[in-house]
Amino acid sequence: MRRNLTAHAFLIGALVCFAVFSWYPMVREFGLAFQKTESGHTRWVGLDNLTTVVNDPAFWQAWRNTALFTVLALLFGFAVPFVAALVINEFRHGQAYLRLLVYLPVMLPPVASVLLFKYLYDPGYGLLNEVLRFLHLPEQQWLQDADLSMLSVVIAATWMNMGGAALIYLAALQNIPGELYEAAELDGAGLLRKIWYVTIPQTRLILSLMLLMQVIATMQVFVEPFLLTGGAGPEGSTTTVVYLIYQYAFNFNNYGAAAALGLLLLVLLAGFSGAYARLSRADDE
Fold first, then answer.
1. pLDDT tens per residue, range 130-162
2. CB 3.0–4.6 Å: which of 158, 227, 234, 256 could bond 114 by disulfide?
3. What is the Cα–Cα distance from 249 to 256, expressed in whole angstroms?
């Protein structure tokens, strides 16, 4: 015990931090989801908060927008970092600089990144519209158009967050034995065939784990639409589930409804994670 006293002290400190800042808020949310506070008095209301949330016209729109963001973010945010890792892995010199270049957006404060994209998307003097004018193409209202606002948010979010995933993919690629690629080349495999038959199977575990993590992260998107479009966006086109939770809690002072919606999101993500883990385990067997 004396020998391990320091280790136990560090473990207890970590457990206390988790209990205070992670576990207690989760337990508290379960209670708030079935309570309502009025005039300083808290009472149990059963499923009333859940009924209030489901009957809100913004409820289904928020879920549709969140699902759309998740799909678009996976198309861009899942493929782009993997392709970037493949390109960096082909360089024999300067990989350290390329890794820094890819990871640099992650090190920038989110507010600074958002201000950069607000400048790019500005309908008057924004760089994207300047490029369109130079090419004699019609200018776009990137954040003011309900049809383009979500795509614009996805592009910004992909650029801001792709660095970490790209480095994880790069580490996985560098662990693939070179003999496998040499054997594929002897069999006459080209670049695409080597990626399909060697790279992807050898990184399948990392790819599946990153897919699960990205689905969970994108379903909880808040920062990018909140800072770029004010949260709701034109005609509510960027209203997400987490932004709706924020509205219930801090705009409407309805913490019970916010907790109920958060609980719904938790159940959905937990169910998806469990099903995904079960399917992955069955596939491995």
1. 988 888 888 888 888 888 899 999 999 989 888
2. 227
3. 8
| pLDDT, the chain, mean | 87
Helix and strand numbers (H, E) in the chain are 16, 2
Task: Give the whole-angstrom CA distance, residue 43 versus residue 233.
Answer: 35
Mean per-residue pLDDT for 247-273? 90
Mean pLDDT of 100-104: 88
Please tell me the distance from the alpha carbon of residue 166 to that of residue 84, in angstroms, as a whole number: 6
Question: Which residue, chain included where needed, has tokens 């507010």?
Answer: 111
Record the tokens describing residue 237, joined without a space: 């086109």
User: Hey, CA dihedral for 178, 79, 66, 110, is it positive or negative?
Assistant: positive
pLDDT tops 80 at residue 40: no
Q: Are 273 and 216 in contact (CB under 8 A)?
A: yes
Compute the C-alpha angle 80/86/88, nearest 5°: 100
Whether the CB-CB separation of 280 and 208 falls below 8 Å is answered with: yes
What are the residues whose beta carbons fall under 8 Å from the beta carbon of 129, sequence distance 6 or more? 122, 123, 139, 140
Alpha carbons 58 and 128: distance in angstroms, whole number: 31
pTM metric for this prediction: 0.85
Structure tokens at 140: 């776009």
Joined together, the tokens standing for residue 95 give: 């990989």
Residue type at 260?
A
Q: How far apart are CA 37 and CA 252, in angstroms?
A: 13
